[in-house]
Amino acid sequence: MSVVPSTQAAAPAGRARDNFSHWLLAQRGLLLAVAIFAVMFLVYGWKLNVGLTANIINTAANKGALLALVAMAQTLPVITGGLDLSVGMIFVLTNCLASVVVVGGPVSAFFGILLVLGVGLLCGFINGVIVVYGRLQPIIVTLATGAVYFGCSLAIRPQPGGSVNFEFADLMTRSWAGVPSTVILLIAVVLLIWMPYRRSVLGRGAYAIGSSEQAAYMSGVPVARARLLAYTLAGLFAAIAGILLTCITYSGAAKASLANDYTLNSIGAVVIGGTSLFGGVGSAVGSIFGAFVMRTVGDLLIVFDINPVLQPLFVGIVLLFAVSIGSLRILRVKNKLDLYR
What we know:
The protein has a two-stranded antiparallel sheet. By secondary structure, it is mainly alpha-helical. The two termini are 39 Å apart. Helices cover 77% and strands 1% of the residues. It has 14 helices and two strands. Helix 2 runs parallel beside helix 13 and helix 12 (256-272) packs across helix 13 (284-303).
């Protein structure tokens, strides 16, 4: 009796199991971030006396979306093996600019939004040009350009103030059938910007550069263009966050402390979301959940009546836990190439 049919039938099942195992391994950072956020947010809702009302969910989504967008901006340079210390400054710069130009009627506000997004793209493009063609370390370049962007913020808005188109701000911060607009915004950004970029030649090239720039170059990857696009899109994501901040606060403010806080927290969110600081591994979607984890820590401190001054301590513990989990795999491998199989 022949056993060939049974063997052939078992082969697809075995390949399916292998494919699922590889997918699970590749997405372990994202799944861990989702699990941590789900547990923390459920505990937060359980401790609230009024429960998770629509207003509370909307407020939490608004706060988390700001950091999520800045974290998405940070993710792209990190995937290429770099680090962008100017994302917080671009975030503040576009916030200040939006408080000046996203005003008046719908037409005026629309062109103001385009101007702010264009400035964000320009800032990211400048970072990329200096990093790529100046052949300088990204951390040094973005530290310097960040100072320039903050100076521009002070020139635009020496004192906190300004305004924003009310209808647009209401559209960006309200809920639709119980779903916060900021969640819809994040989904739209992922579907319209992140996914096309991730599937593009330059998007795949960014991952290749982070894995091994020399190997990527020898394989024909357009290294310069891929890295330049990563930094340019980082500026765009930060600009979207800056516009959202203006809609939430109805004003602009050039605060270095705010910019530095978002920059540092964006790095934490990226790591919690499963993106490797070595480059070549990660996802903007994971960074979104990492950002919500970072924001939920502060909310938990409030409901557990813990001094908010201790928030950096607890954020550090969560971050250390996430980094340690991600480092276990690195400690187990003998050949670094195994990380990218």
